[in-house]
Amino acid sequence: MGYGGIVASEHSSGVSTRRGGDYQDGECTLRRRQEEVSEEIREIAWKAQHRLHARYRKLVVRGKARGKVVTAIGREAAWVAVERRVERRTLESPMR
Questions:
Q1: How far apart are the first and last CA of the chain?
Q2: CB 20 within 8 Å of CB 29
Q3: Is the pTM of this model over 0.85?
Q4: Residue 52 and residue 76: Cα distance in Å, rounded?
Q5: CB atoms inside a 10 Å sphere around CB 59
């Protein structure tokens, strides 16, 4: 999930290693990347943001743990990005 900015936390010192839950990283990178894309792409991203936020609210209201909800939403967002990339490559490649 590093691609989407979600990475596992880790606290290490010497020989001891403690691994924790996932946390969001890369907000500054995301903002810089958004400045470089077209208005059309930003519009698509904004619609996806609204849809995922609604899903987040729905899951939290149903009593799901917030950490698990954040991870689930992040994975869904990453999957949508991967699907779009595959779809774009499929459309660009010549038929055999």
A1: 33
A2: no
A3: no
A4: 8
A5: 17
Q: Tell me: pLDDT of 76 over 80.
A: yes
Question: At what angle are helices 66-92 and 39-61 packed, to 10 degrees?
Answer: 150
Q: Average the pLDDT over 76-95 and give the result.
A: 72
**Residue whose structure tokens are 């917030």:** 66
Q: DSSP letters along 3-58, please?
A: GGTEEEEEEEETTEEEEEEEEE--HHHHHHHHHTS-HHHHHHHHHHHHHHHHHHHH
DSSP code for 62: T
Q: How far apart are CA 75 and CA 83, in angstroms?
A: 12
Q: What integer best gives the mean pLDDT of the chain?
A: 77
Name the token pair of 35.
């400045």
